Amino acid sequence: MVEQEALARAIAAGRQELEGIRADAAKRMGPKEAAIFEAQLLMLDDPVLKEGLTEAIQSGKAADEAVREVTARLTATLRNVEDQYLRERAADVEDVARRLLRHLRGMGEERHLRLPEPRIVVTYDLTPSDMAALDPKDVLGVATEVGGPTSHAAILARSLGIPAVMGAEGLLAAVGEGETMVLDGDTGMVLVNVAAEVLRDYDRRARQTRAAREDVPVQPRLRARTTDGRRVKLAANIAGPQEAKAALAVGADGVGLYRTEFLFMQGDQAPSEQVQYEAYRTVLEPMQGRPVIIRTADIGGDKKIPYLPTSVEANPFLGWRGLRVWLDQPDLFKVQLRALWRAGSHGNLLIMFPMVSVREEVRRAKALLDEARLELLAERQTVASAVKVGVMIEVPSAALIAEELAPEVDFFSIGSNDLIQYTLAVDRVNQKVAGLYQPLHPAVLRLIHATVIAAHRHGKWVGICGEMAGSIEYVPILLGLGLDELSMNPGSVPRVKHLIRNVSYSECRAAADEALKAGSAEEVRALAEAVGRKGL
Ligand code: PEP
Ligand code: MG
Questions:
Q1: Residue 415 CB–ligand 1 contact under 6 Å
Q2: Of 166 and 406, which is predicted with more confidence?
Q3: What average pLDDT does the structure give for the chain?
Q4: Most confident by average pLDDT, 56-60, 228-232, 304-308, 426-430
């Protein structure tokens, strides 16, 4: 009886705390975030959980032992289900359990993390309530060893505007207290003890991102149109279904890049056709007919998948990566292609293949796409009536044969992150050569230009979905090169839109023409700045 009463008191105290957190989340973040804690409140009243706890206590367990055992069983079950969403709910159960245990052990009120100065928080795991208790003023970023981009903690981080990288394996071993680190929430990258030059570059980008958020109004209804009438599409890069909402909130014209490989990185086996179908559908439906470009999984390079057979490669970025991985395993590839065809019936789907270097790869991928469709039709499944197909231009050879690739596809999307690395022979994750990673290098611009010319000659459109597209210092030149769509992190859309609405296309074109003749990135930067300054 005593234990039962202690449990009841802990539940009551936990409820009171959670109600406070829910109200605070509603005020600071919004109804979606408050709903996370609403769900935790419901867990406290869950009859199955309560029954389990009562039974454990009746069998002689102390209340805290009962909470630990019953919730551990529940989280273990959740962690093993196939559905990713449910898997990530295990963190909520753990959060509730920790709250109850704190009260049962008389540890009193939740203590908020107070940092002596703004810092990046590095930790093994973070529960949703830990995250909600953080003050964005103190916390420069959050990095965790476990978790994923769709965990509730990650969703809350996004709402609070705290850059976060969740699930960085090996993090705790690599980072020491007080060390300098760079955390890039856009790419999910964590760099430790970086060179001063790299630090400066990230610092500049961070300031730009903050400024973008603070002083440019989000004008979702306004279109990105230059002062002289050139309309450019602004799309969002996303890594999971949750971010589709962020894309809509900023008024993106669609999703220009859905990086599906994160779906493949979250378990110890490849996501099934059904899991993939649901993830893609969850993005397509809310976009209400706006185009959604889903990229087939770009595995390899720095994105290793433990369950896929790989050998150690001396040069992984030049090795088994992107489309190459899947063309060697067509049956596995077809799982994704089938899921895409099925999901395509719920919206406006475009499919894109990454890491194309020769034309034959495109033809083989398209043949497999056709086969997948025929299989589904033979099974009488519902599939999209048609999907548009594009390729990423991220290898110089692809840019140089764009003229020959264009008839094979409906669109191109320039992956500048890789195009820069492969053109300049600069590993994009090697800090030692980061100073040579120059987006405005004329060689890169000439390849982009060649791609645009070839595409337009064949009546196809070209977008760019690398990080360059969301950076206002590069946008004037990109516009001038004639790109039809810029796809970026949703948070960058308002600032880029503001810039576009305040520059003239003819000036951008003149600057781009000059840039194509330039001999260095510095020369191009000066040209871009001259136009960009007027737009800000
Ligand atoms: C790119 O290479 O620019 C790109 C968008 O793809 P990722 O960054 O995923 O390689
Ligand atoms: Mg790429």
A1: yes
A2: 406
A3: 89
A4: 228-232
The mean pLDDT of 260-276, rounded to a whole number, is 87
E-strand ranges in 106-223 read 119-123, 139-144, 164-166, 181-184, 189-192
pLDDT digit string, tens, across residues 387-404: 999 999 999 999 999 999
Domain 119-193: CATH class, spelled out: alpha beta
Q: Which atom of ligand 1 is nearest to the CA of 301?
A: 10
Q: Which two tokens stand for residue 223?
A: 């279109």
451 lines ligand 1 (CB under 6 A): no
Contact 497, 535 (CB under 8 A): no
DSSP string over 379-405 = TT----S--EEEEEE-SHHHHHTHHHH
Q: Which of 327, 251, 342 is nearest to 294 (CA)?
A: 342
pLDDT digits (tens, 9 = 90+) for 340-372: 999 999 999 999 999 999 999 999 999 999 999
For residue 416 and ligand 1, the question of a CB distance below 6 A is answered with yes
pTM: 0.70
Q: What are phi and psi of 351, to 5 degrees?
A: -110, 140
Residue 265: C-alpha distances to residues 280, 305, 312, 446 (Å): 16, 6, 18, 35
CA of 301 to the centre of ligand 2 (A): 9
Span of 122-131, 269-278, 410-419 with lowest mean pLDDT: 122-131
Q: What is the mean pLDDT of residues 474-491?
A: 95
Ligand 2 centroid–CA 475 distance in Å is 19
> Closest residue (by CA) to atom 6 of ligand 1?
415
Q: Break the chain into its structural domains and give their ranges.
A: 2-104, 119-193
| CA–CA dist 227, 277 (Å, integer) | 41
CATH of domain 2-104: 1.10.274.10
Residue 440 has pLDDT above 90, yes or no: yes
Q: How far apart are CA 49 and CA 44, in angstroms?
A: 8
Q: Are 159 and 30 in contact (CB under 8 A)?
A: yes
Given a contact cutoff of 8 angstroms between Cβ atoms, the answer to whether 80 and 92 are in contact is no
Query: 152 catalytic, yes or no?
Result: yes
Residue 458 among the catalytic residues: no
Report the relative pairing of strands 181-184 and 189-192 from DSSP bridges.
antiparallel
Distance 149 CA to ligand 1 centre (A): 17
Residue of 299, 318, 394 to mutate, ligand 1, most atoms within 8 A of C-beta: 394
Angstrom CA distances, 291 to 221, 237, 297, 420, 533, stand at 17, 12, 19, 26, 32
Q: Are 371 and 334 spatial neighbours (Cβ–Cβ below 8 Å)? A: yes
Distance 191 CA to ligand 2 centre (A): 19
The verdict on the CB of residue 418 being under 6 Å from ligand 1 is yes
